[in-house]
Amino acid sequence: MKIHPTAIIDPKAELHESVEVGPFCIIEKDVKIGEGTIIESHVKILTGTRIGKFNKISSGGSFGGLPQDLAFKPETKTYLEIGDHNHFRENVIFHRGTVEGKATVIGNHNYLMGNVHIAHDVIVGDHNIMVQNTMLAGHVVIGDKVFISGSVGVHQFVRVADYAMLAGLTKVVKDVPPYATVDGHPGLVVSLNVVGMKRAGISADVRLAIKRVYKTIYHSGLNTKQALVELKKDQNPAPEVQKVIEFFETSKRGVVDHKFVSGGSDEE
Asked: Where do the UDP N-acetylglucosamine O-acyltransferase C-terminal domain residues begin and end (predicted)?
């Protein structure tokens, strides 16, 4: 194990023999860090944090701190759980959960840039990118392959679905549906995330079907419930289309509205 002599590591922390820890890091008890993880300088990893394999942590981060919740009792045993192959850049701040025995969870293969804040009880999926100063409030759920641009703020309890894209400086107060691009204050759907869908290998026919689903929901003159009834008349929808329908059906906060863009093509 390659540990800088200035690092302070509690003897009750569990680090794989291949872990590297840089200067002036602090690692508390009841921490577990998996194979191949590299921790640069001035990082704090606090009690209840679980970090998987082959993660890279840049300088200045704080992992597993107490939730910023006035009702939280510090003696409550909660966790921060991080998967494998993530890259966390400088000065990120991740807090542990608030419910006894539960965790804030970050999945695998995520790239989070400097100063990203992930609050208590957040769940982040896999293969997501979050740009500088992204802020996720408590209980937010992020799907897979989401792209969040710089200085985006996401309200507590919001869900952001797979392949969504949030433009820089966006204020997100309602759920963001799959494959959508959201921008504004508050955030509105302005287009589909066509680039993300193409990279995912979603065919032109399916992209067009998704576009038509959103036209039915937002521009048919029907309310959301009526639009979903109409869409469910298709007995054999593409899985991607079904994902959109199910997201609207299960939203508790309501889904972001659409900013109509005239003159657009079917792939906007």
From this structure: 175-256
Residues facing residue 106 across a β-bridge:
82, 124
Using alpha carbons, select from 92, 84, 83, 151 the residue that is nearest to residue 123.
83
What is the distance between the alpha carbons of residues 106 and 208, in angstroms, rounded to a whole number?
Answer: 32
Residues forming the active site: 120-121, 138
The pLDDT of residue 262: 53
∠18-21-22 over CA atoms, to 5°? Answer: 140
10-residue block means of pLDDT along the chain (268 residues)? 96 98 98 98 98 98 98 97 99 98 98 98 98 98 98 98 98 98 97 96 97 96 96 94 97 93 47
If residue 117 lies in a helix (H) or strand (E), which one and from where to where? strand 117-118
Q: What token pair was written down for 253?
A: 């906060």
Following DSSP, what letter does each residue of 132-190 receive, concatenated?
TT-EE-TT-EE-SS-EE-TT-EE-TT-EE-TT-EE-TT-EE-SBB-TTEEEETTTTEEE
Q: How far is CA 20 from CA 113, 255, 261, in A?
A: 21, 43, 51
